[in-house]
Backbone:
């Protein structure tokens, strides 16, 4: 039998964005009458900046060290960008709650050009995301796409130093850090379909801590939960890794009617982009998973991926 710890300790990465997100959840818990404190931690994903995430073990690197703090009892819950949370968590942990989603779109950021269309032939665009890379290549095969890692401030600094003509970042991160004025253009999903879970937060807790999981439920937003379950089911079905050239984005067209789109690209740019979509009445987690699974199967056959994936 667990009771609710007081104070609740929230494990978080120490980037400005992660701290904003954890502080936001701390305040939400405060409004529910709980006292919460932050435990800042540096993860391997934050330390290794010279190699791409897909090469060093994926976005799970951002999550693992926070899970160790939960397992040790040094912290009770962890706040993550949902985009960085692997679909399959270790058995001892659950995604206890997904709060309302922020801006899910990608942002075009440049000091010179107002829109992607304005970039000259062969312009240099910074992004390390395989998804952004393949979608940019699809829109503008002439662009030279170069790696860009580090936290948001670091990425903007590299742009300002003149290393790139433009960069592409998540709008949610810029907005949370008060940097919305850096957004020159927001990509519509038709141009750049977001990653699964983009713009949403995920709160992770020990699976056995029933009292804590129950206490987090008032922060949950069922429409965001169901949409992101559908999106994340596609990631899981296509191999479970977040470091894939995969986009998956769901929107509510009307109450209960979920529209799910997905895209898969070839990072080498040899094969054309594959895009699929489906709609379904979704009222519970099983139906959201079924829609995600259906679209994953459609994507797999349309892209000629067969049964095995890299
Ligand atoms: N991969 C890093 C990451 N994880 C979450 C965000 C932004 C916030 C979000 O998408 O929810 C970012 C930065 C970015 O993609 O530009």
Residues:
């Amino acid at each position: 039998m667990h009771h609710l710890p007081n104070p609740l300790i929230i494990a978080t990465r120490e980037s400005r964005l992660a701290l904003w997100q954890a502080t936001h959840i701390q305040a939400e818990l405060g409004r529910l009458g709980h006292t919460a404190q932050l435990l800042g931690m540096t993860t391997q994903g934050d330390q290794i900046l010279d190699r791409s995430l897909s090469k060093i073990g994926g976005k799970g690197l951002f999550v693992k060290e926070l899970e160790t703090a939960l397992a040790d009892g040094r912290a009770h819950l962890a706040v993550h960008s949902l985009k960085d949370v692997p679909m399959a968590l270790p058995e001892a942990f659950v995604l206890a709650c997904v709060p309302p989603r922020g801006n899910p779109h990608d942002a075009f950021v440049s000091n010179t050009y107002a829109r992607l269309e304005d970039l000259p032939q062969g312009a240099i665009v910074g992004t390390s995301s395989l998804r952004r890379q393949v979608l940019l290549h699809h829109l503008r095969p002439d662009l030279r796409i170069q790696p860009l890692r580090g936290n948001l401030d670091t990425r903007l600094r590299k742009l300002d130093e003149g290393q790139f003509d433009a960069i592409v970042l998540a709008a949610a991160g810029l907005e949370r850090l008060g940097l919305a004025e850096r957004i020159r253009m927001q990509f519509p999903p038709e141009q750049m379909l977001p990653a699964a879970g983009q713009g949403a937060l995920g709160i992770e807790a020990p699976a056995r801590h029933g009292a804590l999981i129950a206490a987090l439920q008032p922060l949950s937003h069922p429409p965001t939960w169901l949409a992101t379950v559908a999106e994340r089911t596609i990631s899981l079905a296509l191999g479970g890794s977040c470091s894939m050239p995969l986009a998956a984005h769901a929107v509510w067209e009307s109450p209960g009617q979920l529209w799910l789109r997905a895209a898969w690209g070839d990072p080498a740019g040899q094969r054309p982009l594959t895009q699929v979509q489906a709609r379904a009445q979704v009222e519970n987690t099983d139906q959201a998973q079924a829609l995600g699974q259906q679209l994953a199967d459609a994507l797999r056959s349309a892209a000629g991926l067969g049964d095995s994936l890299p």
